[in-house]
Amino acid sequence: MQIGKIIKKRSAAALILFVLIAALFAPALLPGPEAYAKAVDPEDPYYGIASELYDIENGLPTSEANAVAQTPDGFIWVGCYSGLYRYDSRGFVKEVSDPGLTAIVNLFVDSKGRLWVGTNDNGAAFTEGEGFTFFDHNDGLLSDTVKDFEEDENGNILIATTEGIAFIDRENTLHRLEDPRIDTEYIQELRREGGDIYGTTIDGEFFSIRDLSIRAFHTDTEYDFEANCIYPDPDDPDLVYIGTRGSEVLHVDFEHGMKILQRSDVAPLSAVNAILKTEKAVFLATGSGIGYLDREGVSHIPAGIPMNSSVYHVFEDKEGNLWFTSTRQGLLKLMGDPYIDIAKKASLEGSVVNSMLYSGDVIYIGTDDGLTVLDKDYRKVENDLTAFLAGCRIRSIKKDSKGNKWFSTFSEKGLVISRADGSITNYGASDGVLPTNRVRTSFELSDGCVAVSASGGLTVFKDEKPVEFYDESSGLTNIELLTVSEASNGDLLAGSDGGGMYRIPRGGKAEVIDRDDGLTSEVILRLKRDEKKKLHWIISSNSLGYYEDETGKVTILDHFPYSNNFDIFPDGKGRYWILASDGIYVVPEEDLISNAEDMRYAFYDLKNGMPAITTANSRNFLNEDGMLYISGSTGPFAINIRKAADERGKPLIAIPSVTVNGEEKYLGAQSDVVIPSDTKRLIIDAYALTYGLDDPEVSYRLEGFDDDTAYTGSMSDLEAISYTNLDGGDYYFTFSVLDPMTKATVDTGRLHIEKRKSIFEQEGFWIAVAALAGGVIFYLARLADKKKTEALMKEAKEKRELINQIVSAFAKCIDSKDRYTNGHSFRVAQYTKMIAEKMDRFTEDEIQDYYNIGLLHDIGKISIPDMVLNKPEALNDEEFEIMKSHAERGFDILSEIRIMPDLALGAGYHHEYLDGKGYPKGLKGMDEIPLVAQIIAVADAFDAMNTDRVYRKALPKSVILSELKKDRGTRLNAEATDAFLELIEEGKIGFLNKSED
Hints:
Elements: E1 5-7, H1 10-24, H2 26-29, E2 48-54, E3 67-70, E4 76-80, E5 83-87, E6 92-94, E7 104-109, E8 115-119, E9 124-128, E10 131-135, E11 146-151, E12 157-161, E13 164-168, E14 174-177, E15 187-192, E16 197-201, E17 206-210, E18 213-218, E19 227-232, E20 239-244, E21 248-253, E22 259-265, E23 272-277, E24 282-286, E25 289-293, E26 299-300, E27 311-316, E28 322-326, E29 330-337, E30 339-340, H3 342-345, E31 353-359, E32 362-367, E33 370-374, E34 380-381, H4 384-388, E35 393-399, E36 405-410, E37 415-418, E38 424-427, E39 439-444, E40 450-454, E41 457-462, E42 465-470, E43 481-486, E44 492-496, E45 501-504, E46 511-513, E47 524-530, E48 535-540, E49 544-548, E50 554-556, E51 565-570, E52 575-580, E53 584-588, H5 589-594, E54 602-604, E55 621-622, E56 627-630, E57 637-640, E58 652-660, E59 663-666, E60 672-675, E61 681-689, E62 697-703, E63 711-714, E64 721-724, E65 729-738, E66 745-755, H6 763-785, H7 790-817, H8 824-839, H9 844-855, H10 866-869, H11 877-884, H12 886-894, H13 903-909, H14 931-945, ...
Parallel strand pairs: 60-66
Antiparallel strand pairs: 1-10, 2-29, 3-4, 4-5, 5-6, 7-8, 8-9, 9-10, 11-12, 12-13, 13-14, 15-16, 16-17, 17-18, 19-20, 20-21, 21-22, 23-24, 24-25, 25-26, 27-28, 28-29, 30-57, 31-32, 32-33, 33-34, 35-36, 36-37, 37-38, 39-40, 40-41, 41-42, 43-44, 44-45, 45-46, 47-48, 48-49, 49-50, 51-52, 52-53, ...
Helix pairs in contact: 6-7, 8-9, 8-14, 8-16, 9-13, 12-13, 13-14
């Protein structure tokens, strides 16, 4: 058979080089399973399932997806009819524009890390070296429609087509797997999980392959089902799962007479297209949606999954996330979710939740419209209590030690008590028991009494009867009480809506605790008792703090990162969870109690999978198992705070490419890259790859450029990493994943970047400049020494010609550095010479000296950084000051040539103006500014106006003449300007832009 055609293209080559090299380093790149986040487990009572659908409205450039795979570098690949896409957890990028890679129907990654692509009409392709190797009918492929790939234990790649099976050996030679039973069959799939390869045909036949031979073959007439897919059980090489075209999944002993061990009815799902067994369940991709079989083989359909049609593939990535493809709906990702979205599980309509209680496997949800009760399977329960509280705004639900539930409402029902025996009692203002029907919350005291806070005061109940009442007469300056608790000595504690907090001895007068005692706000939303610490957490309208029961000291946590907080809970592992208006903060106990200046914390919000934000001033409930039931602004949800923070994933760092002046360069596993000296913009592509709900904390720095860390924040907020006009030299780019709480570095990727130095940055250039300068000084000295004799005058003339040539060479260096004004030095020198001649007051030698001085007037620009000198945009103030410094720098350079002191005058003073508004010295008048500098200023001004610059074209002739005449005698020397205008009139000086306006 033939070797497949190798098609090499620039874009394909770069991509494949990246993928292939990364694959070779796969063991080092991919951490073990312990490094990843929680896998999808539909049966875990402490975890939920989050889903995200990618389609044309959500990132994927199409609403159909046919295949999905993950290469060892960590990237996800998606095959669609429109092409091949790479997903990096932030977006989808179409990586390859090769015309052969369209209508992609399947993807496969082999043991070498190579990505195989099966197309609907262009055959098969795989990555190797610098291109794609293609196989089609011209190479002996049975059909150009490739349906699936699989690899056997010897490294052969089997290709399922619509006309049989081919295979490619380790030498990349194509063969046909010959067997009359499959020679012309439409092979639908091939699957292997460590043993034999199994497959199905479009006619419902199924078979096994070992050592490139058909080992067993079964037709649809042998059994009472039609096989639609087959999947070898990864836990037992003798067993397989068979999905039917109807609504059954069979667990079969393939090796021992096709004995059916279990039949699972998966209706209403039908047409089982793919099966995947994970550690947690057996997942199904079907024509009518997604389902799973539990450990007993019972079928379930996860609630709230937004994919329900034409699901053909299921794949598990390295983190345990599941990916499903639909030819109609796109790509779906299922993730293990530390949050249980109770609203979604119970199909509740979105509503604001004010209070939660979990008791006896029952969830109580208090809303503005009444009470919702759910059983352990999240089914709604309707009973006398829900009917009694219908339409009531429930602010708080509490349970006492007798099993009674206390409902505080803002309604005519007031305080409602649901007893353990099922009876219901309520108290309100009409009974004279409570001051109003606006009841906030309740708290069971250590003696079994229950304190109830309301608008109007505080009532204490004993055996459900009011026995104590506290209001203004008890020393309360504000009787709108929002919260109530009990100090360790039995005193009542209450927080008010604007009057601070109160400590009330039972039956005594209240002690007021306000701003004078350390509070930053006198609106106290919550007092939370902390038995372990013997203190009360204070949640006010603008701060978080605590009150020590024994000492009465108030401590405000002014280093806590957020002010608008609602509730706080310890997780039993040395951390506190603070529910806030922007998410959840998790803080180490020692940092919170000590009010640490650099307080560590982890932060979770909607980007991390939170179904909703906590309702303001809501009541939430933590049960004994660590499950925190949270009142959400759009519905209830829960999270196990003892488990969640310990099961965050460790992202995989990838720096796949850099972009140099707009051209992307893939790096693969390289840790070094060389970029050319003319690089103006460098973009570094860096990722912390994770496909679960985590939003990793990352940081980066370019050592050699950044003085400190350039960015610290979430991966989702990371913008393009871009650097411009880097000097030549070595740089080290470090990209780190941080611990979300401690901010300590968890993992780091490092890239060495060498930028080639330009000629002006190379030591040899400056050695040559120094040598030239030394030569100039030497010859000038010799010239001065030998002026005494006529014989030496001739030699001096020759030396002067040499000096002129050296000066001319310097001028060329100057103009080559400033590429936007190339030739400027020679033009200014020529204009200076012409003006001096026209003025008719200088000797021939003086005129030649003026010409040389004009050539070197901009020598100071050699010391100006390229990023300033050649910047294509307007300079900012700081850059303009740097640019102006070229005059003084030029003077300093040339002043060392003492044999010709006037040489430095043009460089140092050609930007000085007669009106004193020039630079660098601000000299004023003809007496202060050297004459040669005044002449050069006229020549320099004209050339600046008469040449194209990066920010404008040459000015029109009329504008230039007008400017020269306007500045004559005010900024520019009148005699020199007149001489220049005469030269223009004589036609000896022309204009680039001859327009008159």
